[in-house]
Design brief:
- This protein is of the alpha/beta class.
- The strands form three sheets. Strands 5-6-7-8-9-10-11 form a seven-stranded parallel sheet.
- Helix 8 links the parallel strand 7 and strand 8.
- The longest helix is centred in the first third of the chain and has 18 residues.
Length: 372
Amino acid sequence: MRLASARLFTWGGPVPGQVRLASAAPSARRGLLLCVEGEGGAVGLGEAAPLPQLSSDTLEQDEHALIRLDWSSVELPVGLAELGGAYPRARGDWGAPAARFAFETALASAAASSAMLPLHRWLLADEAHRAGPVARSIYVGSTDDPGTLERAEARARGGATTLKIKRARATVREGVDVYLGELRARVGPSVQVRADENGQLSASEARAMADVYARHGVELVEEPCAPAEMVHLGALAVPFFADECLQDPFKRTRVLANPAVTGFVVKPTLLGGLREAWDLALFARAAGKSVVVTHAFEGPVALAACAELALALGSGPYGHGLDDHAAVAAFRAWPVPQLMGHPARVEPTQLRGLGLGAPDLAGLEEVWRWSR
């Protein structure tokens, strides 16, 4: 089925102050909303929202990449394999991973809607498949944010079973020891806690910090050291996952070969789309590693797409990093149905496509339009 139209909008705004995205978080999150329509009337949505300081692309590059596509050659894919071949036909400049994620999500959600399927079932190419809920973790803030402990306690009381914190660079090892002791006192021993280092440590520092994490029952640490050292890092006192270093295909291959790496954190916005994220997840699992799908603090469209990807991949020993994070409020108020039913799970719906319903585009600034 050919496309009838494609429209691109800007959206985003200030991030509410109650949760910091990281130690040096931007005060605003902005992105692009892509809306496509097939000739049969099926509508699909995609979102490009590169994360400052982490993404390899910029919003301007994403906008340029999407506008210069040969949209007249684009057709709705019939499955994941065909989705992966859509770029050459469109002759796009795909040096912009977030733009590729928006493009793929829009096409895939339109195709799923046309087939009257949720996106996770379309990804699996199985109309009879009924995905079950998958566990998720909740990000509650960084160690330099005074509100993190209160949010952690509130989310644990609300039923969350896994919480994630980021260690701020200024929080030294002794401070982490004290902090985690207070966190444990507030949330209790049964709640899982995971930590994120964002590659701040050397290998030796990572080993020492892991000992602290192990004393407080931390279930895993993400990106414990710089990518150059991650490829050689041996086993730590807690499991560790690769995250930001996966953006580099060369480092990704070397990290995949490191038997000490427990798992991969899959962020479609940073990796370059649904197909790339899907293939990476399958490669990781084939190598005996766990996979966690998570967001990059985008808006509701990308968050819903990540939730559908997690549902298609299914459960593992570690919950997927999908929470209704504060930055969502910087975008259009669009409830994400996969995250509304339970505080500790991503739950499948039988809603078509992303499950977001008919898009309300009123008030958004349109920056480009194409129609057949």
